[in-house]
Amino acid sequence: MTRGPWHVAVLMGGWSAERSVSLSSGEGIAKALESRGHRVTRIDMDRDVAVRLHEAKPDVVFNALHGVPGEDGTVQGMMDLMGLTYTHSGLATSVIAIDKQLTKQALVPHGIPMPGGQVVESATLFERDPIPRPYVVKPVNEGSSVGVAIVTDESNFGDPIGRDVEGPWQHFTELLAEPYIRGRELTTAVLGDEALLVTELKPKSGFYDFDAKYTDGMTDHICPADIPDDVAEQCKAIALRAHRLLGCRGASRSDFRWDDTHGIDGLFLLEVNTQPGMTPLSLVPEQAAKLGIAYAELVERIVEDALAAGGAKT
To answer: Is 122 a catalytic residue?
Structure first.
């Protein structure tokens, strides 16, 4: 079934660090579907989510969850067991893409340029640096720049990092340490099997962290990015190849760092987001709009992709 009207359950909220973003995404999606004549059941996910989905009996579930457990394969596995059709990536893809180290293991052997680095126990940071400064530490399986810290010689974290200093090491037992790539923040959305545009993100202070992503006015979006054509085409090519290699469905978003002093060789993929945001500040709707795809049409296309595939099973 690919023609509407459909009954869509919009699954949103949950209990991850990105709950507020998911609620905003989900409400926008629900209103867009209703504006196109579809019946919508809103579900703010809690522990009885399976019962509520069973009672709703939707034609398709729009997965608007961000972070764990909505983006890591947990909810996808539940919906597979229930025989539900749902948007975005399936179980195996979600398990790999949420884990930054697993993503590297899946993509780097295929020639996708990604930063080096290693997973470290947070407690070891209080004894020594795992790699030379400057470097970045981040949770292995969180999105939206949750818990990211840049450790430099000039930072106030100490050398070595102080045990009582606030940072992701206080909240996660393991962290991924990567060399810090100086330069510019770029992102490319993929919709279906097409890379859209490249956006440059320019935070007005600090770096592109959670607050910069989701607070209006804190980051300038340059879309399309003012970058050389070969770098833009490489961003789109890498994003599409990563989307295919990981088995992503619907929409995904690939985030990059580009050291513009090294030309195209300075471009590195950081991560692939299988559940990109759909808020008013989100990058996928913004890129789609630049290409003439209105928000409601974008939402419908993601639903149609899921229905045509009979549900994500990857």
So the answer is: no
Contacts of 120 (CB under 8 A, 6+ apart): 130, 137, 174, 175, 176, 177
The 8-class DSSP code of residue 291 comes to T
Whole-number Å distance between alpha carbons of 170 and 163: 8
* Lateral strand order in the sheet of 60-63: 39-44, 7-12, 60-63
Q: Is 255 a catalytic residue?
A: yes
Choose, from 142, 255, 304, 305, the residue flagged as catalytic: 255
**144 part of the active site:** yes
Told to judge if 253 belongs to the known catalytic residues of this protein, a careful annotator would answer yes
For residue 209, indicate whether it is catalytic.
no
State whether residue 58 is helix, strand or coil: coil
Q: Is 194 a catalytic residue?
A: no
Question: Using an 8 Å Cβ cutoff, are 274 and 287 in contact?
Answer: no
pTM of the predicted model, to two decimals?
0.90
Q: Catalytic: 282? A: no
Report pLDDT digits (tens) over 147-203. Answer: 889 999 998 999 999 999 999 999 999 999 999 999 999 999 999 999 999 999 998
Is 273 a known active-site residue?
yes
Catalytic residue among 25, 145, 273, 282: 273
Structural domains of the chain sorted by starting position, each given as residue range(s) with its CATH number in brackets: 7-89+297-309 (3.40.50.20), 97-114+182-293 (3.30.470.20), 118-179 (3.30.1490)
